């Protein structure tokens, strides 16, 4: 299994949003001032990790993409509905650098002028384990220690 890091997941989300809505600027890192509308901000919100058999883990990571629309545009209010439809119908799977993520539990809400799109990404990880010395290896180590002494 490839090692999955949060930065790669966020980059994958940004790439998919850009593919679905190419004219919208995507911010995948915090920006305090100077953003240009229309745009998305991607926000990591929560993670639930469940241990499975052996050293495998089921990760369900929650994100929120907030869409800020440009109200200077004509029919701005209706454009937010188009963005909603695009996300609801087209944002189901993400492929990024050989990683594949499934989108689950989508929630879309309009708060004031902004569209909040919350979702989960599910993936599995496997923790590397140290090799436990077998009895034959312990005997070899003990012999080596005797010879070194």
Sheet with most strands: 6 strands, mixed
Separation of the first and last Cα atoms: 42 Å
The CATH class label is Alpha Beta
Query: Which fold name is given in CATH as the topology?
Result: STM4215-like
- Name given to the CATH architecture: 2-Layer Sandwich
- Subunit arrangement of the protein: single chain
Order of helices and strands: HEEEHEEEH
Number of strands: 6
Beta percentage is 35-45%
Structural class: alpha+beta
Mean pLDDT: 84
Spatial order of the strands forming the largest sheet = 1-2-3-6-5-4
- CATH homology-level superfamily: Phage tail protein-like
Residues in helices, as a percent range: 25-40%
Radius of gyration: 23 Å
Q: What is the 3D shape? A: elongated
How many H/I helical runs? 3
Question: How many domains comprise the coordinates?
Answer: 1
* Contiguous runs where pLDDT drops below 50 for at least 5 residues: none
Please describe what this structure looks like.
The protein has 149 residues and is of the alpha+beta class. The chain has one domain: STM4215-like (2-Layer Sandwich), CATH 3.30.2000. Helix content is 30%, strand content 40%. It contains 3 helices and 6 strands; from the N terminus they run αβββαβββα. It is elongated.
Compile the SSE list and pairings.
Blueprint lengths: L5 H15 L4 E3 L11 E13 L4 E13 L7 H15 L2 E4 L2 E13 L2 E13 L8 H14 L1
Parallel strand pairs: 1-2
Antiparallel strand pairs: 2-3, 3-6, 4-5, 5-6
């Amino acid at each position: 299994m490839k090692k999955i890091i949060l930065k790669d997941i966020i980059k994958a989300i940004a790439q998919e949003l850009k593919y679905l809505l190419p004219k919208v600027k995507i911010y995948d890192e915090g920006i305090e001032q100077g953003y240009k509308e229309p745009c998305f901000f991607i926000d990591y919100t929560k993670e639930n990790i469940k241990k499975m058999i052996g050293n495998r883990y089921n990760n369900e990571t929650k994100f929120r993409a907030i869409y800020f629309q440009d109200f200077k545009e004509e029919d701005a209010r209706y454009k937010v509905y188009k963005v909603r439809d695009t996300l609801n119908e087209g944002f189901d799977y993400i492929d990024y650098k050989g990683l594949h993520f499934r989108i689950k539990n989508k929630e879309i809400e309009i708060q004031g002028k902004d569209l909040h799109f919350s979702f989960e990404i599910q993936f599995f990880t496997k923790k590397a384990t140290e090799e436990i010395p077998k009895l034959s290896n312990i005997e070899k180590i003990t012999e080596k220690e005797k010879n070194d002494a």
